[in-house]
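step: validate -> pass
step: tokenize input -> pass
step: predict -> running
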Amino acid sequence: MLDYNQPIDRARHPTMSEAPQRKSEASFNVLELVSLLWRRKIAIASAALIGACLAVTVGKSLTPRYTATAQLYVDPRELQLVDRELTPRAQDVSGMSMVVESQARLITSNGVLLQVIQQANLDKDPEFGGGGDAKTLMNSLLGLIGLQPRAPSAADIKDVQLAALDALNKHITIRKGDKSFIVDIEVWSTDPAKAAMLANTLTNTYLTDSRNSQALAARRATGELSGRLKELRERLRNAETALATYKAQNNFVGTQDSLISDQQLSNSNQRLSAARAATMDAQARLDQIEANKRTAADAGAIPEALQSPTIANLRAQYADSRKKYAEQTAELGPRHPALRQTEKQVEDLKRTISEEIERFALSAKNDLTRARDYEASLNRALEVQKRQSVQLSQAAVRLRELEREADASRDVYQSFLKRSRETEEQETLNTSAARVIGEATVPQRRSFPPAMSLFAMIGFIFGGLAAACWFVAAEHLFNGATAPEPSRRERTPAPDLTRPQPEAAAPPPALALVEKPLIARLQEADVIRTLGAILATGSGVDLTRVGWPTLRPGFPLTTLLNALRDMRAAMARRAGGKTMPVMALIGAGDITGRSVTALNFALAAARDGSRVLMIDADHQAHTLSNRINRPGKSEPNKLGWLSIGSKAAREIKTVNGISVLPAAENDAAKAADAIRKAIAQARSAGGYDLVILDGPAMPLSAAGRKLLDSTDALVAVLPTSLDINDSMEEILATLGGAQRKLVGVVLDELPPATQTRQRGKQYA
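step: predict -> pass
step: emit ->
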């Protein structure tokens, strides 16, 4: 059983014959200690009193400090006086807390403190490193003897200011509550009035600097925007000029909605449709007249004849003549002159009506000819306009491009112009909500040193303890008492190699130290889940789309990835400088969980730039091979040169920087031999940095043990759905001597595949 608390040293085997540790021979009696202290009570009390006096003396010699406190309310939700502010506002609680923390740091910034030093003349104050009265007295003495003091240089002035800045930093303490926007500014000084003055000066200087910084930011933004306005104005003018010139060159004339050419084309199309309708009407009218003439029907039955007053008059006369002819026929003989005259009159009227109908037909022919000519002229004009419209459409491509450029330049110019005016107005606005809610007052009590009673009590206690310790130590030294001897472990004497040793007394062979395996947790937050099987991308197979939970893209500093990197580093140390180390992942319980962990282990290594060869070493389940070798999913042209077992199981190149070698043999011994040959072949070719074996399956067969002997490191996969301790004990018992290769343990906290399928059905 492995002990994970510390490395195991199997070179030493303790026996029952080892002697126990010796106990301390010397002991101390509490009654003797009490008796000793009671005998020395006067000396101890005297030492305590002396200690109290010394402590009070030290407290009196310390320079008193007076602390003044000013309270400042820093509201991160600044006043919104305009729609768009120069600086973004904090929205959530964490962002507001960061804003308040930043403002608290700004209070003690060098810029603010230097202004306080100048306003309070701290560079001349001896408390803050200035020359003060001593320097003034020296200058007066030099003036009495006729010597002019040397004027301080810029470097000297800067050094004095830096010294005052450092001293002022030590005198200031900023305190901010965890759940409030109130900042306490504490300033201490040897003079209480000076402490209050410095605290108030610091708060006022900070507020003034905050307002000035806002105005400066607005002024700088206004200057930058104004500097760009001239260039944007010139760009807009050039774009509009180019647009107008192009319209004039290509005859783009029209209203805002459409061009004149488009309007003319639409009107011509409408007129052509009307002309075609008129032509068809004229043709129909002529055909009707011709049909009436051919059928010998009543020629006056056409609409034109019925509407003509001349035809109507002639038909009335014709009717009267026919009536008169009928009456005369009944009364007179066939040769009567009156009857013949009436008959001739009837024939003349009939011929006149026919002549009128002929004139209608001739008029219909003329209308048809005119309509056809008008339609043809409109058709020719429409063709000309169509050609012109096509030419304008081709030129409109460039026109729309110029219009877009002009619109974009116009929008940018208007935006910059509006923003420039807004920032110009913001220079005079104070949007800061910070204010002083409590001015510093002159402190009435000192903050340091504390009360003399406390000093006296501390000195009294320490003096008494020191005297008591001294008497106890002196008593033991003078009485010859020794400290208890530390326990020593009996050591087994080294065997004499010059003498023959019996075989039974030979020490056990030294075994190598077993390092503590690294622990990694594969959680739901570390992976993403995809639906379906392998999806071939544009360049090959993508292992992140096999339907298994795989590592999330990005996030290179997660706990899981760091643990996997540490496991690979431990494997590299175990491999002893091999160019292509081999790691096997073994596990108990669900085989799919082991394969999912192996796939994510390979993806993590490939993400760090390693060229990974992943081999399915589970000849029974073939979980990884079945997932990748689905019908119609893998592309034959993406298969590599490396093969295992047979030519059918060839290496599959993926877009993830990982090559997968599926299993091909069902026999355990043949599968193990084929995998070892494939590893040797890949190592000789030198195309990979790491080999990961998915398996072999537990419990191990003879071939599986032989395969693990050729690996450099092992990683155990323990599903949390089972008992972790039982699973680990089972794996260690199965590994036997191979457990020294165990570099890591992955706790698979993902839900089992059955639960995932049930949840997917529920979602579906």
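step: describe -> The CA atoms of residues 286 and 362 lie 9 Å apart.
step: cleanup -> pass
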